[in-house]
Amino acid sequence: MAQSFPSLLLHLGPEEGEKQAAFLELRGALRNAYGQDLEEHSFYAFETPPDRVVDILQNGSLFGSASLVRYRAVEQLKRKEDILPLVRYAENPSKTSVLLLESSEVSLHKDVKDAVGSRHTKIFWEMFESQKKGWLSGYFRRHDARIDPEALELLLELVENNTLDLRQEADRLMAFFGKQITLEHVDQYIYHAREESIFTLFDAILAEDLDHALDIAVKLLMTMDAVQVVLGIAWQVDRLFSLQTLRAGGVPQGKLFEEQARRSGQRIAGKRLQKSLLGGISRYSLEDCRALRVLTGDTDALLRSVPATLHGGIVQQYLYSVISRKGRWNVAAPFARRPWEFPGASGFRGV
């Protein structure tokens, strides 16, 4: 294979948009070089073991003169014996293949990084908040569209911090509402046009609708990691807690969002979002919110310490504890006495 195409590449980091662009650039260059003779494969580490990927690389392209293998989610490779086939392959790689390893993480098993080498490793970092706002407004301008400042802030709250998701959501908004995007458009999009999200899941939590929350969680877990789901809820729980704290401090309900924006520097935009949070305030007390914060933090830690096969059940139990027990049964510590329990209260024993 031509010298301009390294046999192994490692792309790391959470910025999926730039990572996808780098893959498309590599694929385009290989297609220009080999045309129809390029054979392409794509695998995920949690589905396809490394020895299977190495077999394909070593056997070469069956029908073409070159091959491109994209191997994603390699952060799942944690055992030395699983990684060994890749290490051995890196010592004598195929001259007619390119292996692109990808991960949304930055920290990987040392053997994987050493096999590729720092020269062919690139990290794609998330944008800073200031960069994200400029990138998104610029994207609308490049498509001859405009978005109101408040609408831009609300949209940024909804989207993961990478340009791939930002681009997809911006395209959908322009398809639905045309070239001028307002706060009302984004607000409407959240509840009617957008697919299930952390926001719709948290709405179900605030409405104490366990069945709906479980249905949404099942859909989200098909495309999202369980840790991401719980972290998204944690951010919303912190919001609810801050509003309840202001309310307990004597801030009138009509001034809660104004005072919250003044203190945090981040405005909660969108009438529907505000209405949903106000409904949550009436259902979840300040003590409830404290319990939910502890529960959510413990569940996050639990998810990071057990196999992914257990994540679905843990998320279901977490949602049950949030909605039906107001956080007062902890999936991560079912027999523990928590700091927020009232003195003399008996500990909860789980389901």
Automatic annotation (TrEMBL):
Record GO terms (molecular function): DNA binding; DNA-directed DNA polymerase activity
Keyword Transmembrane helix attributed: no
A GO term from the CC aspect: DNA polymerase III complex
The entry's keywords: DNA replication, DNA-directed DNA polymerase, Nucleotidyltransferase, Transferase
Listed GO biological process terms: DNA-templated DNA replication
Statement: the UniProt record of this protein carries the keyword Translocase: no
InterPro entries, per the entry: DNA_polIII_delta, P-loop_NTPase
The name this protein goes by in its record: DNA polymerase III, delta subunit
Lineage: Bacteria, Pseudomonadati, Spirochaetota, Spirochaetia, Spirochaetales
